[in-house]
């Protein structure tokens, strides 16, 4: 691991209050039930380690974007039940973040037991990294463990402020995320193929630029591919398209040619006459998208070429972003083909979070990749070459204790 992160294994936790920053930002249905517990399950190794060593475990997390206000649909109370079921013990919940109720519940916690605080973002001081709020939150624990890689790119009170106030350690999940993603940036085994999709090229351009010097081939699908096609002079009909990114894409294509890097773009696409699951659709060459039609998936020839690049031509594969609107059966084939290729290749495989993780789950392939990141935004920022506040503060804390 390039950064020296002191992990939770080094902490003396017996009979001590340990404040754990988790990422329980999970989807809920209209009835408040958790519909995908991937992030909760990812937290279990660190929590079980602490429980087995008789720590008094105080979990905190954000959920959604309540913007500093109490919003009932963003309560973490449903997560307490899911977490308790997965741990096989009752998880106490307090409808308070860092006030008197939370302080009393933390003080009364027994060794080997778990408490979950209310949504951190109900407090306006969380996202502002307010010193007073950080003081109150830090006072609940004697040690701090950050296991929320999905929030590591946010300089919030629970991520940075508390780590500056308590002896701070990385949880197993966060440490593994940093280690596995670092493999993509520091001497990845070649050939290295990066497959990127998603809707907007503006969201991924910095990642593409940073990866270009490291990969052998960039594979571009999803809505972002239409800006690339437009940069090559093709008409894209009514497809998603960012005119203000065309020059930047042309620069990237020219740089790739200069550096001898391959960029694979769609040669055929599935187009529809409306953005709807039941829209009329057909497959056309990528150079022949008519006005009034929009691309909603890569075509079968492109899917085969993209899959071959991942299966046959790579020793390292990174995938982030779907190839189309995979939530609709008519437009799932391209994403499915890439997912199956990434799951079956002998290469070392890393899949970014968000929609890519959802696609793997939809196709029953989530267990078939080497590393499935829980942090979409954080993983992309790390791959951009940016410093993550939640990681750097832990590295600084580790150095201070050496």
CATH architecture grouping of the largest domain: 3-Layer(aba) Sandwich
Secondary structure: number of strands:
15
Measured distance between first and last alpha carbons? 17 Å
- Overall tally of domains: 2
Helical content (DSSP H or I, runs of 4+): 25-40%
Residue-averaged pLDDT, rounded? 94
Rounded to an integer in angstroms, the radius of gyration calculated over CA atoms is: 23 Å
The tally of helices reads 16
**For the report, how would you describe the main beta sheet?**
6 strands, parallel
Regarding CATH, which class of the largest domain?
Alpha Beta
- In one word, what is the shape? elongated
Tags for this model:
Rossmann fold, six-stranded parallel sheet, 402 residues, alpha/beta
Description:
The chain is of the alpha/beta class and 402 residues long. It has helices at residues 38-42, 44-52, 77-87, 100-107, 124-127, 131-138, 157-161, 172-185, 205-212, 225-231, 246-259, 300-312, 333-344, 355-362, 376-383, 389-401; strands spanning 17-21, 56-60, 91-94, 114-117, 143-146, 168-170, 192-196, 217-220, 262-264, 268-272, 281-285, 294-298, 316-320, 348-351, 371-372. Helix 9 (205-212) runs parallel beside helix 11 (246-259), helix 10 crosses helix 11 (246-259) and helix 12 runs parallel beside helix 13 (333-344). The two termini are 17 Å apart. Strand 14 (348-351), helix 14 (355-362) and strand 15 form a beta-alpha-beta unit. It has 16 helices and 15 strands. The protein has a 6-stranded parallel beta sheet with strand order 3-4-2-1-5-6, with helices on both faces. Strands 9-8-7-13-14-15 form a 6-stranded parallel beta sheet, with helices on both faces.
